[in-house]
Amino acid sequence: MYKLIAQDGRAKSGEFHTVHGVIQTPVFMNVGTAAAIKGAVSTEDLKDIKTQVELSNTYHLHVRPGDKVIKQMGGLHKFMVWDKPILTDSGGFQVFSLAKLRQIKEEGVYFNSHVDGRKIFMGPEESMQIQSNLASTIAMAFDECPPSLESREYMQKSVDRTTRWLDRCIKEIDRLNKLEDTINPNQILFGINQGGTFEDIRIEHAKRISEFNLDGYAIGGLAVGESHSEMYRILDETVPHLPLEKPTYLMGVGTPENILESVDRGVDFFDCVYPTRNGRHGHAYTNKGKMNLFNAKYELDSKPIEVGCGCPACTLYSRAYIRHLLKAKEMLGMRLLVLHNLYFYNEMMEEIKDAIRAGEYTNYKKDKIERVSYKEGGS
RNA sequence: GUGGGUAUAGCGUAGUUGGUUAACGCGCCAGAUUGUGGUUCUGGAGACCGAGGGUUCGAAUCCCUCUAUCCACC
C-alpha cells in the first residue's frame, strides 16, 4: 500500500495507495471535523486548493448527525460528496480535550455529549464500529491522549491501556471489514504511539505497536503544551522505531515551521486546525510570515494576501476587501482566508515532496523556515 | 413662549446619602489559538464627566447662570 519513493536524510516521501486514490506524501490532511471544512468551504472548493485528504472526527459525527445516519446515506464519501481519501480520527483526542466531561475505564470512556449532555460510551469496539459506518479510507485507533504533564506512573499505565485498546481495535475492524453490509471493506487502520515526553516509554510503545504490522502509524500526544524542542527531541527518539516503509503521521501538528522540522525527522502525514481556525480568526500564512488581516495597515491595501499566490482568494481579491469582510463579519472573509491558508499548506507540502525527491530538502527547509517565520508579514 | 427632563470616551450607558488613578458594552488598536465545542479568548488606547461661576478639606454627584437637546402644553 505504501511505497517509499525517496529519502533525504531522515525526510521521506512516498505514495500511499488507497481504494480512494493515491496520496503523495508528505501530505497535510485538511481538517473538517464535522464532515465540513469550517468557513463555508465546499468539497468542490477542495479541488481548487490541492486537497489530497480530508479529515473528519468519529466522536463529533457520532453525536451529530449520527454514524448510522451517515451509513444509511451511503457513507461519508457519498454524504459529503468527496471521492478522495478521508481519514477519521477515533475520538480519542476528545477524551483529552473534553476532559471535564469524561471517565476513563479499561472498557472505554464515558463522555457527556457536548451537544445535549446525554451520556455516551465509547471504547475501541464502538470507535471502530462508528468509523466503519462512516466508511472512511483510514480509521484511527482509539487511544488515550494524556496531558504531557502527567506523572511517569500514570503515563505508563495509560500507554499500556492504549496498547490493549489497539489490540481490540484490530480485532474489531477485521470483523467489521468482513461483514456483508460494510460500505468500505478495505478500511485500513493506523495505530497511535503515546508516552508524553518520556522517550523510553515512547520507544518501547513504538516497538510494541510496530509488531502489529498495521498500514500506518501515528504519533499522538504532542503539541499539547510541551516546548517545540521537547517535541522535536521526542520525534528524534521515536520515529526511528516506527516502520520506515509505512506512513508516519504526527497528529495535530502544526505551524509551517513545525511541519518542516518534523518532515526532517521522518514524519510524512500531518493535520492541524491552524490554517482553518486561524483563517477564521483573520490570520493568513504567507512566504513573508503570518499576517493579521484585521490590522489597520491593510485598510487601503489593494494587493492580494500574497502576491503571486494561485489560490481562489489571491487571484481575485484585495487585502482591503478581505479586511472589510472580516470587520463586517461577512462569512466570505473567513472563507477566503481559509481557502488561502489551506492552499498555502497544501502547496507547501507539494514543495516539500518535490524537494525530498530531488534530494534538496535541507536547503529547501532552511529557506522556507526563514520565509514563513518572517515577522513583518505581508509586505 | 410656558413647564419638565437630559448633557459622562466615536456610539449607547453605569456611577450608590459629595471621598483616593471615573466603570461597562459596542466600536477602535493589537496579541493569542497545534488529532476544532463556528464569529472565541487575552490585552491596550481613548473622557480633565456640555460651558462658566459658586458651596465644601474634597464635586461627575449640591447651588446659580448660560448653551445644546428631548418631551409635554400653548
Features of the shown structure:
alpha/beta; TIM Barrel; 2 domains; 3-stranded antiparallel sheet; RNA-binding
CATH superfamily of the largest domain: Queuine tRNA-ribosyltransferase-like
Give the biggest sheet.
8 strands, parallel, barrel
Q: So how many helices? A: 14
What percentage of amino acids are in beta strands? 15-25%
Q: How many discrete domains? A: 2
For this structure, what is the CATH class of the largest domain?
Alpha Beta
Q: Write down how many β-strands occur, each being a DSSP E stretch of 2 or more residues.
A: 16
Q: Regarding quaternary structure, how should these chains be classified?
A: single chain
Mean pLDDT: 94
- Spatial strand arrangement across the major sheet: 4-5-6-10-11-12-13-14
Radius of gyration: 20 Å
State the order of secondary-structure elements, H for helix, E for strand: EEEEHEHHHEHEEEHEHEHEHEHEHEEHHH
List low-confidence stretches: none
Under the CATH scheme, which architecture of the largest domain would be assigned? Alpha-Beta Barrel
How is the CATH topology of the largest domain named? TIM Barrel
Helix content: 40-55%
Describe this structure in words.
This protein has 379 residues and is an alpha/beta fold. The protein has two domains: 2-272, Alpha-Beta Barrel (TIM Barrel), CATH 3.20.20.105; 282-372, no CATH class. The chain contains 14 helices and 16 strands. The strands form four sheets. An eight-stranded parallel β-barrel has the order 4-5-6-10-11-12-13-14, surrounded by four helices. α9 links the parallel β12 and β13. α6 crosses α7 (152-178), α8 (199-210) crosses α9 and α10 (256-263) runs antiparallel to α14. The N and C termini lie far apart (44 Å). The model has no long low-confidence stretch (mean pLDDT 94). The protein binds one RNA strand of 74 nucleotides through α5 and α11.
